[in-house]
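Notes on consecutive records. When two proteins share a document, each keeps its own sequence and its own token line. Never mix them. Below: protein one.
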Amino acid sequence: MVGGGQLARMTHEAGIPLGIKFKLLSDTPQDSAAQVVSEVVVGDYRDLDTLRAFAHGCDVITFDHEHVPTEHLRALEADGIPVRPGPDALVHAQDKGVMRTKLTEIGAPCPRHRIVADPADVAAFAEETGGFPVVLKTVRGGYDGKGVWVVRSEADAADPFRAGVAVLAEEKVDFVRELAANIVRSPHGQAVAYPVVESIQVDGVCDTVIAPAPDLDERLAGEAQQLALRIASELGVVGHLAVELFETQDGRILVNELAMRPHNSGHWTQDGAITSQFANHVRAVLDLPLGDPRPRATWTVMSNVLGGDYPDMYQAYLHCMARDPQLKIHMYGKDVKPGRKVGHVNTYGDDLADVRERARHAADYLRGTITE
């Protein structure tokens, strides 16, 4: 697996029961997954020679991020190394311009959009789509709200162009909430779909995920799952695909982003689904039969633990575990920085209000923002 973050850490964990030998290409020995994987290569994923040396002897390569240069992945494939997802699929998660072009071509519903050249072009786009505000995104490199701007005038639109990469303009969608449809697809085309979830964002970062999305029309839920399955098939995705969606005021869904790896909106599946996203990603990239994605409980809520003013972690565990014996805590071993994802908690049960309160209390206590 290329990338040493928490997604690699949890994917490795899912492979342990199957006896899968796991090799990691990590930026540093301190990365989340590098702390727990036995075979770690420290190196730069942007260097082709490093990638080739790392891939030697591997049965398959997969990723915990989308940033490996597309041409490097094509070189690995030319060397006979299976890359899953392959570069022809992954480029749609790497480049938002390519993604929008392809999704439009296959008829997937998207916000109105186009590549813009400068602030004056942004103003022209705003006029075409009903006026400011407009969302601007760098086509490559953005994540967790980075590389995304909401601009309210031509004068506000200068910053995105300073990054030196193409800029995509999108209409600012009047949405009710954000949803995510998570599916997993194998090389021979078997695919499974998890329940559609509601994803609650705070300052551009995922804060809470509710599975399944409350009060979501059954027709719209099915439409979202079918859309995600169709996108995976059309793009040739192998492994986990998260399709982030807007639910609009008038009852439609629009595709916001794609991620071709385990995803924050699927962390609830570790404790709330029969087969987690991580276990199914492992099965998919190894072309094993996929596991049952159905939920184990009526409701599961995932809340991220963001970096803050930490109390003693052992004392925090004592409180949280004693207060809620059903609570599931997943910490990543990462240095604490304000706003950084350092872990998450999962709660489940039949009463949504209770499940949400338990998740929020635990996440806030582990962060150190509450003390009782």
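Protein two starts on the next line and is unrelated to protein one.
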Amino acid sequence: MTKPIGPLCNLDCKYCFYLEKEKLFPADENYKMRDEVLEAYIRKYIQSQNTPEISFAWQGGEPTLMGLDFFRKGVALQRQCAGGRPVHNSFQTNGTNLDDDWCRFFAREGFLVGLSIDGPQHIHNRYRVDKGGSGSFERVFQAMEKLKKWRVEFNTLTCVTRQSPDEAVEIYNFLKNQDVTFMQFIPIVERAGDRTAHAIGLDLAVPPDLRAADNPDAMMPWAVSSEGCGRFLCTVFDEWIKADVGRIFVNLFDVALNAWCGMEPNLCTFARTCGQAVAMEHDGGVYSCDHYVYPSCFLGNIMEKSLEEMIYSREQVKFGNDKRDALPRYCRECEFLFACNGECPKHRFVKTPDGEPGLNYLCEGYKKFFSHIDPAMREMAALVQNGRPAADIMETDRTPDSIPRMREGTGRNDLCPCGSGKKFKKCCGK
């Protein structure tokens, strides 16, 4: 994850954890990635990829602040260094600077754009504001229309906040009505007592009433509760499974289906280990993770070391393995460990019911969510494993009186009429 403009952004989103990372750099820093850093990065990154295709991820801050010429230069360097291999670029943006020139470039170069939008205007503008405190919805919505106009492939990134559980249907249907077919939902989990951040002078914009020394574990006012996160995901899932399977893709649902099919979850937050999704700042500094851009997690600089040296260093390998090795017993014995793996270590700051530290703050919500989707996920996994599309689940009658109707003429050992591939007694006939 490359941050060519560092933490600089033209918005001042209230829940952003990254803006205050400016304090990590000298006061006179201009934060723009130098040409020699860009060239070294692209060359070394491509050299490190023993793959038929290569993918770059550009984030911020707000990467459009670098200007189009920077990315034109980057794409040209990629072609020079790739040796004929296809190169793909993803680009996360708040959208406020996107115009026809940007969208023409994205379309021509095949960029996948992630657009940050939290829902309809009254929801989006609650936290996504500019430096003057005004909402950014109109500019973001216009950006989405331009992306559609130029047929740029894009997905949406929506932050799940304290209010989101009660607005889940409205948020999902808004995105659906804008013809969004790829959705990401990111729970906002921020503590007032982030001691690692405080130790280097980052106060994370903590409200005065939460700065008391006796309240270090207080959550920021916009943070979603664990129960709320689970409720939000369950509600969106229930909307999605009615008619949108195979037509709309939600990142967490895709990851869950992967797990229920017996495969490793393909998102770092749910994988067993991590450590390879590092973040590189504008000055070439590489850190363990986007959520761990702290001096203690500094791996080195791209101008001085190779990516292999940094990613496979003893410290970084331990960082990645700790995700698995530091799990409390409560997690190791959980029936949903295969799907969750303790989620992101950044969120492991509460105690288990028996007092062991290291439990994920979102545990309750995820258990609620995984329990809720388990029957449908089992059915979709069975469909996939029998060579049928997961979308066929929408043909299954799920009404309360459907089981008696299905039972007529179906023996206990017959294949279940729902199409799961299981015997009736092991499926809908339970």
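For the record: The radius of gyration is 23 Å.
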